[in-house]
Design goal:
Helix 1 crosses helix 14 and helix 9 packs across helix 10. The protein is globular. Helices cover about 35% and strands about 20% of the residues. The two termini are about 30 Å apart. The protein has 2 domains: about 140 residues, NAD(P)-binding Rossmann-like Domain (Rossmann fold); about 300 residues, 2-Layer Sandwich (Dihydrodipicolinate Reductase, domain 2), CATH 3.30.360.10. The protein has about 500 residues and is α/β, with parallel strands linked by helices. Strands 16-15-14-13-7-12-11-8-17 form a 9-stranded mixed beta sheet, with helices on both faces. Strands 3-2-1-4-5-6 form a 6-stranded parallel beta sheet, sandwiched between helices. It has a two-stranded antiparallel sheet with strand order 9-10. The chain binds 6-O-phosphono-beta-D-glucopyranose. 6-O-phosphono-beta-D-glucopyranose (BG6) binds next to loops. 6-O-phosphono-beta-D-glucopyranose binds next to loops.
């Protein structure tokens, strides 16, 4: 990987430093950036939580967390990283520990301070209040929050107002980790770094777009949170709408953060509202039942939850539309779910069929071109094309594909995790890949009426067997329009 210039020394305080996000994502990402030489040995990583831990035992926990992966880390490099790590017990909801934190940070007053709130959203207000009370909200401070930003438009506005009471928008970084994925950023490169696509990127040439984020995992271990959220809040309102924005936005005139975000905001505002009867017609919600994923038999959602039944959806399919000049009439089919047949995230752009076929029936069917952007796993880009089947004896057509796989194109290079890029962007003060306040609110403004219509619906989410592709109604949603969900293996050789 090309070398990255080191960042000036900075401090990062992780509230929730003993929690799952810190252990699984944040600390391993910081380690990788340290190993890559992007984080200088003078920077400090301060874990913080209510637990009365000493720094030495926290470092042991960190060492354990960052070495669980398959990669071997040389012990001297690991020790060098751990020497950046410190721990302070701080209680976000009281004054305990704050004076010590302030003293520690003020020992290095002239550097960027990142406060990562890896804590429940119910504690954001308290944390911001204390940061202000202890004078830790200066111009070099930045605050990072994770979704969920609210559970509807009103609560999102409240959360945003709470943050804005203390930090300016430029200091506030709302993470959507999908934006840190290499292939998501690659969408920008693909669309705007090639002259090829732009003239075709509109309703006259594109028949429809499919965005699928399918997971094999269930909700075990997170059922408490998940049951209050569901797939629309957990995946669609944020990750999937952000993907849709990158596909549908107008070319920004520069990569300036607000220029890009202005264009995304226009897409969110142009989403055709789905209300009442539309919701019944254009959305499908499902919930998994016991089934086999891979070769393992897994329980149903309600069983995992320990409840008799639940109204929470673990699957959503939506036929959305972006009602503007470029996209009017082009369906954007969104689909996401837990315990589906395969873990796959992809965007499929299906072009219009050729207008007139020169070839007789003996040539075989003409399949419209598809551009398939595979986000995970097997990141890559594929363009489905028709060619002549080799050999004499008439002209027969065959589907084939131009294929670019990240793994073979960049063999030997490790693919950085989304958090690596995003954390360094926070330190650099670059908010391009973070959600702006108005984006979050516009996404909720679209999601709210769908949630409201579902809440009125006496029926439970449609059942689907774990290990399938979701309820049959999701297939019907697309087939009603004379289309089908893209299936990789069948569609292209
Ligand atoms: C999170 C959701 O934001 O994204 C999870 O809360 C989901 O429910 C996860 O599993 C998916 O992320 P990734 O990077 O594994 O696709």
């Amino acid at each position: 990987m090309p070398p990255v210039p080191p960042l000036p020394d900075f401090d990062i305080v992780i509230f929730g430093g003993t929690g799952d996000l810190a252990k699984r994502k944040l600390l391993p990402a910081l380690l990788q950036r340290f190993l890559a030489g992007q984080i200088n040995p003078g920077s400090r990583i301060i874990g913080s939580a209510r637990d009365a831990l000493g720094s030495a035992s926290y470092r042991m926990k960190v060492a354990e967390a960052v070495t669980t992966g398959s990669e071997r880390i040389a012990s001297d490099r690991l020790s060098a990283f751990l020497s950046l790590v410190d721990y302070l017990p701080v209680d976000v909801s009281s004054e305990a520990g704050w004076a010590e934190l302030k003293a520690k940070l003020e020992a290095r007053p002239d550097r960027v301070r990142v406060f990562y709130l890896a804590i429940g959203p119910g504690l954001f207000a308290e944390a911001c209040k204390r940061l202000q009370q202890f004078g830790l909200d200066g111009p070099l401070s930045r605050v990072v929050v994770e979704k969920p930003i609210g559970h509807d438009l009103d609560s999102a506005r409240q959360t945003n107002a709470t943050l804005a009471n203390v930090f300016s928008e430029a200091q506030t970084f709302r993470i959507d980790h999908y934006l840190g994925k290499e292939t998501v950023q690659n969408l920008i490169a693909l669309r705007f770094g090639n002259a090829l696509f732009e003239p075709l990127w509109n309703a006259a040439r594109i028949d429809h777009v499919q965005i699928t984020v399918a997971e094999e995992l269930g909700v075990a271990g997170r059922a408490g949170y998940y049951d209050t959220a569901g797939a629309l809040r957990d995946m669609v309102q944020n990750h999937m709408l952000q993907l849709l924005c990158f596909v549908a936005m107008e070319p920004p005139y520069s990569m300036d953060a607000d220029v890009v975000r202005d264009e995304k905001l226009k897409v969110l505002r142009a989403l055709k509202p789905l209300r009442g009867e539309d919701v019944r017609q254009y959305t499908v919600r499902g919930q998994y039942r016991k089934g086999v994923v891979g070769s393992v038999t897994v329980p149903g959602y309600a069983e995992e939850l320990g409840a008799e039944q639940s109204r929470t959806e673990t699957f959503v399919a939506i036929r959305a539309e972006v009602a503007n000049w470029r996209w009017a009439g082009v369906p954007f089919y969104l689909r996401t779910g837990k315990r589906l047949a395969q873990r796959v995230s992809e965007i499929v752009v299906s072009f219009q069929p050729v207008r007139h076929s020169l070839f007789g029936a003996s040539a075989g069917p003409l399949t419209p071109n598809k551009l398939i952007i595979r986000l995970q796993p097997d990141e890559g880009v594929r363009l489905g094309l028709m060619i002549k089947e080799p050999g004499p004896g008439g002209l027969r057509l065959r589907r084939t594909s131009l294929d670019m796989s990240f793994a073979s194109e960049f063999a030997g290079q490790r693919q950085p995790d989304a958090y690596e890029r995003l954390l360094m962007d926070v330190v650099r003060g670059n908010p391009t890949l973070f959600m702006r306040r108005d984006e979050v609110e516009a996404a909720w403004a679209w999601a709210d009426p769908i949630l409201a219509a579902w809440a009125q619906d006496p029926e439970l989410p449609r059942p689907y067997t774990a290990g399938s592709w979701g309820p049959t109604a999701a297939i019907a949603l697309v087939e009603r329009d004379g289309r089908t969900w893209h299936e990789d293996l069948e569609d292209l050789p």
